Amino acid sequence: MIKIKNLTKKYGKITAVDDISLDVEKGEVFAFLGPNGAGKSTTIKMLTTLLKPTSGEIFLDGCNVAEDPNKTRRSFGIVFQDPSLDNELTAYENMQLHAILYGVPKKVYVERIAKLFRLVELDDRKDSFVKTFSGGMKRRLEIARGLLHTPTVLFLDEPTIGLDPQTRNHIWNYIKKLNEEENVTIFFTTHHMEEVERYGTKIAIIDHGKIIAQGTIKEIKERASVESLEDAFIKLTGKQIRAEAGDASKNMMRTSQKLMR
Amino acid sequence: MRTIYILWIRQLKRYIRKKATIIGSLGQPIIFLFVLGFGLSPIYAKAGGGDYIQFIAPGIIGMTVLFTSMFSGVEIIWDKQFGFLKETFVAPVSRLEIFIGKTLGGATVAIIQGCLVFLITLGAGFRPENLALIPVAFLFLVLISFLFSAFGNAVAARLDDMQGFPLIINFVIQPLFFLSGAIFPLKDLPVVLDFITKINPLSYGIDALRFALSANNIFPIWTSLGVLVGVSVVLVFVGVYQFSKVEL
Q1: CA separation for the pair A54, A67 (Å, rounded)
Q2: Geometric angle at alpha carbon A144, from A143 and A145, rounded to 5°
């Protein structure tokens, strides 16, 4: 479903993603883990056509991402790490805009939007402005929006960041259900290891732009010879605290946006 | 087409929902109209120019459209900061459609503001010479709006910070406005000034408005039309190129 071959991204002298290769099969719930600044978001941005790789190839559902970006864009849905809704529009208007951008016919989207609103339990708030929503509601709306055009792959970049356990649980149950019932491939990043143990099928750990481990959760734990994934993660990536990559102002913005949720 | 439409309607909704901004942005043209209009009108009349309000009203309308459409580019920077631009950029739509949708959105807002200011000029005593030419004036209002909205978007495409954009835009807008013939006639000017006003696309826009509203133009109307359309096309190309280079 997702095939990454020798993918590299350089910003001047800094190598954010260094020659990584990955294979994700259809129907998997794939956890892409790593400390802050390891290259997770950069990889997701390349997978989703927002960044051009310096070298290497990506195939998504058989499509070459670099050669055929528009066809690729149809096949995936994404929930970004940072919010990406229009706060000045209502929830319904955000969904409708998405449907039209993806060329979903009106007959189909009216019904599908209603269904998705029920699924993420926002149908009573569909005509409220997004700026009045809590962080959890915005997240649910973004997930619903990412699914509107029936993608075959769903990218989730830290989907549960800043959410309470109830909302997290709710969102994950929904993602799991979607994965099982509609066979949507899930590719997600997170810092909550218990989420990975609970819902992930396979994982890859990236650090300093390189993949340092991949396999099933059991395999990773055995390799590190520890009991929990959290311990395995720390053993493999070290105890040092990382600075986030990128420029300071952007990070400030990111942090404040996370806090605003 | 549906992409262009939905991006256009989005911007209109955002505009209509911010009523305070609509009123607030009328402040500047009103000040210019009343201060310059009434302040300079005795001298202008003594110099044999006729009624200054008749002269300056199309200039003030042009100014409104220039400022509103250029500043609409800031929406792209907001969209970057609030993340919404990513949502449009991962969608299976061409950069051309996004650019045109955004430009038409900004242009429409500027057209509405321009029409509001036109009504205000009527209140200040401005009388169009020939009512039959009002549609021509409207056409040129559309062209000016589109041109400068495309300009603003092309500048905003590669900028990230919200403080930087107004500074850059002001740096561009001020000379465009003051050297356009909006507030003084482009006649018998020093050579350098004459040259600068002739390479300024806004000069042609305001002159065309003056043709339609005050029957007082210096460039042939077809020249003005050609310049505005030509520059717009170039700006669309530049803007789409800039958009294609955006990495988020």
Answers
A1: 14
A2: 90
Taking a contact as any Cβ pair under 8 Å apart, which residues of chain B between 132 and 191 contact chain A?
160-161
Instruction: Give per-residue pLDDT as tens, B104-126.
Output: 999 999 999 999 999 999 999 89
User: Are B83 and A96 in contact (CB < 8 Å)?
Assistant: no
Q: C-alpha dihedral over B134, B29, A88, B90, to 10 degrees?
A: 70
Q: What is the pLDDT of residues A3-60, one digit of tens each?
A: 999 999 999 888 999 999 999 999 999 999 998 888 898 999 999 999 999 999 999 9
In CATH, the architecture of A2-260 is 3-Layer(aba) Sandwich (3.40)
A244 falls in which pLDDT band (50, 70, 90)? low
Domain boundaries, given as residue ranges, for chain B: 2-244
| Chain A CB within 8 Å of residue B131 CB | no
ipTM of the modeled complex? 0.88
Asked if B14 lies within 8 A of A49 by C-beta distance, the reply is no
Question: Chain A within 8 Å of B13 (Cβ-Cβ)?
Answer: yes
Shortest distance between the Cα of B101 and any Cα of chain A, in A, equals: 12
Residue B78 in contact with partner chain A when CB distance is under 8 A: no
Pairwise CA distance, residues B87 & A230, whole Å: 33
Q: Where are the domains of chain A?
A: 2-260
